[in-house]
Amino acid sequence: MNKKFTVTSFAECKQRNEKITMLTGYDYSTAKLIDEAGIECILVGDSLGMVVLGYESTLEVTVDDIIHHCKAVARGTKNAFIVGDMPFLSYHINIEETIKNAGRIIQEGKAHGVKLEGGVEVVDKIKAITNAQIPVMGHIGLTPQSINMFGGFKVQGKSEEQAKKIINDAIELEKAGVFAIVLEGIPEKLAQIITDKLTIPTIGIGAGKYCDGQVLVTNDMLGMFSDFTPKFVKKYSNLKDAIISSTKEYISEVKSSAFPSKEHTFSINEEVLEKLY
Ligand SMILES: Nc1nc(=O)c2c([nH]1)NC[C@@H]1CN(c3ccc(C(=O)N[C@@H](CCC(=O)O)C(=O)O)cc3)CN21
Ligand SMILES: CC(C)C(=O)C(=O)O
Ligand SMILES: [Mg+2]
Fold first, then answer.
1. Domain extent listing, the chain
2. Where would you tag: which of 54, 106, 112, 201 has the fewest CB atoms within 10 A of its CB?
């Protein structure tokens, strides 16, 4: 099992009705493990800010932050397609800044593609980035960089007006040339309508089972992040408890001198030792 995943593999997945798997990754060790497990796409998400850097929202994340963590993920990844999230303000100012920032995430960060949030309002930026031969992933619905417009991380697309806007955004993003679209925090049936309308794959997070693929924040699904737990998170492990209990055991063994024991200790030749006394 040593197959590199590409934008073409994702298109083929949709044609074959095979679900696409994506998780976030922020560091070398974790990327190496999820890549070895066979994950097809690793997103160096701007959730980095909340999960790894302890920020209140994703708005504080910079292009340099994303590049720093993309580099680490790239060093641990053999097969997965790496997507770098474009942070807040990195694709809003003008086309030139946008291409430069997307280009840096590819050139310095060693990502294979970028993702940015928004619908019709970012179509010109998407076209410019794809013209620079950089694959772009769209992201609509609950777009966390819009937290101050939404008034919180709230499910989107429940009203007819909102739902129609999201459907139209999806169609326009496909026309603009994105290779896939993340659908976040929208009703399952709306995600189904969009998935059926599009020829490119949809990747859901809190968007139900009809999407062509699924993405979760790795720290959420491993149960090692608990500041908040969105309804869409399934915990496949409970690493939080594992980390706390292991740390408590380590503290107790160091305090009691049970650790380190002989097996974790180096010895010195008796004759050499004599000379030291
Ligand atoms: N650890 C983590 N996981 C994520 O999925 C994630 C981040 N961080 N940071 C960036 C955004 C923020 N996200 C979030 C955060 C909270 C909810 C949440 O609590 N939603 C409510 C629904 C609220 C409503 O519509 O009324 C829920 O119950 O799921 C959803 C998405 C998704 N992203
Ligand atoms: C939740 C995913 C889609 C994301 O954008 C992120 O992790 O930043
Ligand atoms: Mg993001």
1. 7-238, 242-276
2. 54
Tell me the C-alpha distance between 87 and 163, whole Å: 25
Q: What does the block give as tokens for 86?
A: 């474009």
Rounded to whole angstroms, the Cα distance separating 35 from 210 reads: 25
**Any known ligand binding at 115?**
yes
* Ligand 2 atom index nearest CA of 46: 8
d(CA 79, CA 1): 9
221: Cα within 13 Å, side-chain hemisphere? 14
Return the structure tokens found at 87. 């942070």
Question: Which residue's CA is the nearest one to ligand 1's atom 15?
Answer: 153
- Arithmetic mean of pLDDT over the chain: 97
Residue 272: pLDDT above 70?
yes
**How far is CA 27 from each of CA 32, 78, 134, rounded to the nearest angstrom?**
9, 14, 23
47 is in an annotated binding site: yes
CA dihedral 101, 120, 171, 176 (to 10 degrees): -40
Which ligand is closest in space to the CA of residue 52?
A: 1
| C-beta separation of 219 from 243 below 8 A | no
CATH number for the region 7-238 comes to 3.20.20.60
User: What does residue 26 show for φ and ψ, rounded to 5 degrees?
Assistant: -130, -15
Instruction: Dump pLDDT digits (tens) for 142-177.
Output: 999 999 999 999 999 999 999 999 999 999 999 999
Interface ipTM above 0.90: yes
Distance 52 CA to ligand 2 centre (A): 13
Inter-residue contact 221 to 23 (CB < 8 Å): yes
Q: Strand 213-216 relative to strand 180-184: parallel, antiparallel, unpaired?
A: unpaired
> What is the Cα gyration radius of the chain?
22
Return the active site residues: 184
